[in-house]
Structures
1.
Amino acid sequence: MKKGILKLAIIIVGLNLLFMYIGLEFLPQSESRPPKVIKIEEGISQDDLIHVGEEIVFGKGQCMVCHPAKPEAGMRAPAMSTIGAETEKEAKERGIKPEEQVLEALVNPSKYIVKGFEDIMSPVHTAPTSLTDGEIIAVAAYLQSQGGKVTLSYPGSVPILKDQISKISKAGGK
Amino acid sequence: MAEAGVSKGILKGVIKFTAILGAGFILLAVFKKMLPLPTEDGYRFFPLIGSRDWIWIVAQLHLNFAAFVLGVPIFAVTMEYLGWRKKEERLDRIAYDFTKLFTLAYTVTAVLGSIFLVSLPLLYPKFIDYMMKILGPTWWLYLIVMYGEVFVCYYYFYSWKKMKDQKGLHVLLGVLLNVLGATLLLITSAWVGFMTTPAGVSPDGELLSRWAAIHTHMWIPLFLHRFVANIVFGAGIAAAYAAFRFITAKTPEEKAYYDWMGYTSAIISIGASLLLPGVGYLLGVEIYSFNEQMGIQLMGGFFAWLWVMQAIMIGAILFFINYYLWISLQKMPGGERYFKYVKFLFIVLLLGYAVWITPHDVALSLEEARRTGTYHPALGKLGVMAAKNTAVILSYLATFLSFAIFRMSNKEPTVSWAKTGHRARAIIIVVSAAGVLALGIYSYLVSAAVRVKVLSPIQFGLFFVGLAALYILDNYMYKGAKTIGEPRWGRMPERSQYALIAITVTFTWLMGMLGYMRAGARQYWHVYGIMKNTSPDAFLPTHGYASVVVTIVTLLFFVLISLVFWSIMKLEQVVEKRRGH
């Protein structure tokens, strides 16, 4: 009987240690820390703005959670590599400026849904993403750079961004 | 304990709970006076291990015991009802044994709950003040329902023998106990639902509608998921108890009884677990509809590798239960006829396991994300939902077949259409397996929305239809069947009981890990998008760190539950001694 109980104890402890070992040794070890606000200098060059935008897209913006890098079957959201060109085309079809189209897609994503996709994106200027004005413009510049012409600058494009945000409150948006 | 009178037993129970709860409130008031004021942003710090880990350990331990004491009464009362209707003494005995288990575990649950009650407002005062502002009335309702639950629980237990001639009334008491338990679960699920998928408040956290704050996206699906998981977990612990008693049993009668109890509990546990993917799916749908980003982050972002871990563990559980059932064939006269099928079932399980634990590619750096894209170039096709769903369902189908084989292995059908029945059995298995496989392959060709919202439910539906068809067919075909011999309960090698224990250990660890993931979905928010966590602990630790904490919780839980098992044995000895005198 005592031997049986000892074996039971060994199984309980052994399995626990095995699971802990898998967790420690076989799974990737990284922490997920709250994002920090990225300081963007006024008058930042376009190349630097795009670079900062790329960092946000692949990092604190968590855009890659839904958007694949390249087009693939069954994707949830438009692919990054062609998003600039697509945005330009959509802006033309709707008769608005490309920068309005790309900023609207970030702060009021429910307004225009690309054909074949669902209304799943949350605005990036409110919680939980909570990007600052500069960060949003940097992301938009990076998106434009993916196959399109970059027309945004910081702080030059802030009024267009503010205009898009004010349109949401007027319309009682999402 | 079992020998006390009904009113005396209830009174003892209520006094004990009041004392535990009262001690909690007194300690809370004393510590509030003694400890320094919280920081400006509303935190106090627990020494050595930090506030987060302390709350993590206490909350998960409390949750484990709560799951146990809420889950076991569901099948205790079911067994009591069946025993009463079928006039089977053995079913009444198992129901009573289950009741003994959860009644004793109530005390440990209350003590842990009280520690939690003291710790949370002391360490996170601002957060608790906010929760009380939004959902305060539900907390007082919780206390009232908890008292009702304690009263009915002790009444149910202590009146077992006294009400043996009023079984209908006693079963009703058991039903009431479960209604109260489910209400407690509903209330606590509302709290977690609000923290994760808040509603009914303005963007700056002001209360707009209390009902909306209760009735969040997550509320009902979380309640359903916990309700089913509690049955799975409770039955798992009961199986572990039976295994422990089997190993320590001194007589063949005891061995036979606990062997049967272990089998019954394990089948309830695994049977109920079949519902978990379905209710988990509902929960997932609600999380996605609240915030797609949270859903994807949970399923494919930071936590993606923990789903692989989950696959490792559920796959292991399926192996343990199949192993147990295959060994069990030895005690069935005629069981040896089915040994030849075991290797095929093993192959299906192995292949299913291999696909299930194949990870989706998870890029951990900007560089890696650029290089590999969303899916791994070689294994990506197996690491996606289309393949995994198919693998999981086929593994469960193989497990059901192991169970069906065991159940019928000592019988020989006598109906005239037995041959056709056997053929129909094979057709049902092949059609449902092929259908699940075909739908899985087709899933690759459609959009994510169609795959998740249409094809996955059809796959699970097909699996359940197949299961129901097999079950109904077997029941008709084996009605009045010739019995080759009665099961030789108790004649099981000890290693079969280790499989039962392994199932429970794995379930407990898994529960701890999934609890962490559910809480982690909020990332650095106390209330997602509404109240930020600004403490030094506002980050998700590495998976290795989380594994260490979950291991500590699981080991502590087994130490405590072993004490409950040991206490029951000691109490039984005392009762036996008294009877002897």
2.
Amino acid sequence: MSSPHAAHRAPYIRRFLAPVTAILTALALALTGCSLSSSGGGDKVLTVAIWKGYGADLPWVAQDFKAKTGATLRFQYIDSEDNLIQLMSKADGSIDVGLPNLQYIGRGIDQGVFLPLDTGRLDNYNDLYKRFSGLGEIRSAGKLYGLPWTWGSTGLFYNAKDFPTAQTSLNALWDPANKGKVAVIDDANVVVPITALRLGLDPQNPDMSKIRPALAQLKSNAKTIYSSGTDLAKAISTGTVDVGIGNSDEVGGIEGDTPGLTYTIAHEGAVGWIDNWAISAKSKHQDLAYQWLNYMTSSDFLNKYVGPPANQAPAPANETVAKQFNQSILDRLQANPDKIDSLVLQLPEPADRLQAWNDAWQEAKAS
Amino acid sequence: MTDLMTSPPGLRPDGTTAGTVPRTRRYRPGAAATTAMLAPGTVVLLLFAAAPMVALLVTGFSHDSAFTFANFSKVLHTAVYMRLLVRTLVVALIVTVVSLAVAWPAAWALARYVGPRPRQLILVLVIVPYVTSQLLLIYGFITLIQSDGPLMKVLSLVGLDAHSSIMYTPAAAVLMMIYESIPTGILVMYSAATQVDDSVLEAARALGAGRAFVLTRVVWPLSVNMLVIGFALTYVQTVGAFAEPGILGGPSGQLLGNAIEAQLHSGTDRPFAIAMALVLLLCSLVVVGLVSLVLRRTQGDGRSRR
């Protein structure tokens, strides 16, 4: 039984299949090409896992690094610290370096994701703040796994134009007089310790029964709960918020465009964080990875990075470099060493504690 | 009646067809050609829709490497997440109904009363939001509604305070989501409008049907199928929103999508975040199913009374 159209079917199929085959072949070749270009780059491609727009992917960085090493850079962007550890764990060495923060680096160390670092190959290791390079959280069994790169704080900011006196206390965030004028960062990992500092509780392990009502009060005082520096900048530039909780680097980047905007570490304290470069244990480009770590912590890179306020650079962990900055840059970066001791560092916490913080913040937001 | 007598069925006075196509002998490709046509789409769907869904189900039902309902139990037994779930389903319903209510008349007018050239231009303008970054749309909307922005300055002419704004309120997020949903509504309902044959409408009017009767007994039953599609597309797209409530909605505008995002971002319990997403997906499918059932029943009623 042949169809009436049988005579036409074969040419039809050929006509149809020809472009489909061509497209599939092109796709296969393109994929093969991608694969070849990544492996064909061999020793001269370094894959870096990092937050988008966080210094390492500035356009001139790739040019500088290529001029120094002949290598090209490829970036794998992350959307959370957990995401970084998972990506580097599953990449099986195809991601060479990553930037875990102090709170999460321990997970990667425990899972064997990171390479123990040879301090003899780290050119700038001895120039780092000893308080950072000596931290136990970047070590395991006496071996170093993370090279501190930048640090900063998340604390109080306010617009001096709207306050007759300098704000020095976290109480400003809860003050009913500021209701509808407060910006709060949408991160339980920050708002819970900040609330604990304001209440005089242990910021690493606060009594949550006291934290919850205070979080609800903070939320009711808030005008916006923001997730990105862009959203904060918008709220500040339009005069919608006068006071809030912000990252020192993000507020520092906005200060130039907003006269009166002031970041300060309140007398109760602020939350501190440190980002560290780590090399994948399975990296096939270890020499290049060490060169990257040396470049990222060098005076050459850091001076160019912190220069333009628009880069929203945090403070460098390289003390020798930081000492060479003039006072205005130190103020913008909040890189004054005397601030370091007043910070409550984000340290590794048990998962159930972080989940309790997250639940409490969600509860406050939904109230 | 003049048109009916002078124009062939389905042909508008301007010479364009209104959905009917002359019946011709249809070519039916063989099994190999049909398979070849279906294969690429099927492979893509399996790889990028079915496989991730299976992965999500596996993760959602796991806790400490064991199969468990614990993640779903926590979602269903935690008041805050249930409150956010209900709020999300209701907000998505409001957004969908309003956007379709705005889109349908516009689509009807576009299909029937606008000339071919302006129609093409308007359809291109409707499609523009699809090819524009969502964040760009949101920040453009902010510029419009922020205090001292263009909208507030215009409203200040009628006595409103130009320094005030709906920015950082749930209303801003809802408006933004309606704005984003209207193009989908217009495109789907435009397709519905072109499927209603002019001759059917003329016949109804010729038989003495009033406008209300034509709308409820002719247009509605013929449009319900596309209305269901429009509802499903808009509702499912809206129910998972997190950028709009996050950026525009202020402290009281958070939806379940924001809680899911925060949970994923915290990295403490990914299976719990996935359980929340699956519960949201299931509930939204139930809502879509119920609404389509109700809409299709009205279609049946309309047909039986004709």
